Amino acid sequence: MTLPGSTLFALSATVAILMTVAALYCILASRNLIRILIGLELLTKAVTLLLAVAGYVTGRMAVVQTFIITLIVIEVVVIAVAAGVVLGVHRHNQDLDPRKLTNLRG
Amino acid sequence: MSFDLQSALLLAGLLAAGVWTVMTADLLRSAIGLAVTSAVLTLALFLLGAPLAAVFEISVCAGLITVVFVSTISLTKPWGVEAALSHKQVRLRRFAFLPLLLFAAMLLLRSHAPHLDLVAPPPAHPVQDVREALWIDRRLDLVGQILIILAGVFGVVVLFKTRDAARQEKKP
C-alpha cells in the first residue's frame, strides 16, 4: 500500500469503525446465537485491521504481527468454546433464541 | 494527497464483505461472507507487510473458524429462509435510524473532535524481525496463548463429555 500514513490510517479507521458498527448491530439485533458469534468474529476483524494499520504507520510491524497472532489464537479458542456452548443450548432448549434462555431466572 | 486505488478497493471490499455478512438472511451465507471478509483482510495484511499474520488469518480464520461455524449450523436447526427474511424486515424497520445516527455522529466528531496526532514517533530500537519479536520480546504472550489453548481444550472436552454422559443416561 502506497498511501501516505495519515491518509491510510484515516481511511482504515473509518472502515474499521463502520465494520464495528455493523458487528455491534449484528450482536444486538440478532435473535440467533450463531449470528451473535458471527458478529463477535466480525468485531475482531475490525480490531485486526486497526492493529495492522497502526503497525504499518508507526513502523512497528514485527511487534504488531505478534499481537495479531495472539488475537487470532484467543479468537479461535473463544469461538470453539462458544460453539460448544451454542450446541449445548440447542440440545437443552431446541432453540437458539437468546431471549428464551430463561432457565436460570430466579 | 495521493490516492492508491488498490488500497481503496481492498478496504471497500472488506467493508462490503462485512456488511454482506451481517445483512444476509441465510446463516450459511453469513458464515461464507465471514470467510470472504477474512480472505480480503488477509490480502490487506499481506500488502501492509505482515505476511505471518496474513498466513494465520487465512488458515485459521478463513479456514478453521468457517469449518466450526458450518459444523455448528449443520448440527443445529436454524430458522428457515422465510422466517429469517421476515425477521430481517422487522429488524431493518426497527433500526432504520441507525445510518442517520452514524452519519450525524461522524459529522459531530469531524467538527468537534480535538486534533490528535495519532502517528507515534519511531521506536528507539525497532525490532524488525517478527521471529525475534515473537520468541524473545513477547515470550510471555506465548505462555498466555498456551494457557488459553489449554483452557479452550478443557472447556470443549467438558462440554462434549457432558453430552456423552447424557446419552449414556438415556440408554436403558
Overview of the molecule:
The complex is a heterodimer of chains A (106) and B (172). Chain A has 106 residues and is an all-alpha fold. Chain A is built from 3 helices and no strands. Chain A has helices at residues 5-29, 33-58, 61-93. In chain A, helix 2 (33-58) packs antiparallel against helix 3 (61-93). The radius of gyration of chain A is 18 Å and the shape is elongated. With 172 residues, chain B is mainly alpha-helical. Chain B has 2 domains: 1-96; 130-172. Chain B has helices spanning 5-23, 27-47, 51-75, 81-94, 98-112, 130-137, 139-170. The mean pLDDT of chain B is 82. The chains are: A mainly alpha (106), B mainly alpha (172). Chains A and B meet through helix 1, helix 2 and helix 3 of A and helix 1, helix 2, helix 3, helix 4 and helix 6 of B.
Order of helices and strands of chain A: HHH
General form of chain A? elongated
Overall mean pLDDT of chain A stands at: 88
Which range does the strand content of chain A fall in? under 5%
Oligomerization category of the chains in this entry: heterodimer
Low-pLDDT stretches of chain B: none
* CATH C-level label of chain A: Mainly Alpha
Q: What percent of the residues of chain B sit in helical stretches (DSSP H or I)? A: over 70%
Q: Count of helical segments of chain A? A: 3
Residue-averaged pLDDT of chain B: 82
Give the low-confidence spans of chain A.
none
The largest chain-to-chain contact, stated as pair and per-chain residue counts, equals: A-B, 70 and 81 residues
Please name the defining characteristics of this protein.
heterodimer, A: 106 residues, mainly alpha, Helix Hairpins, B: 172 residues, 2 domains, 78% helix, extended
Secondary structure elements and their pairing?
The complex is a heterodimer of chains A (106) and B (172).
Chain A: H1 5-29, H2 33-58, H3 61-93
Helix pairs in contact in A: 1-2, 2-3
Chain B: H1 5-23, H2 27-47, H3 51-75, H4 81-94, H5 98-112, H6 130-137, H7 139-170
Helix pairs in contact in B: 1-2, 2-3, 6-7
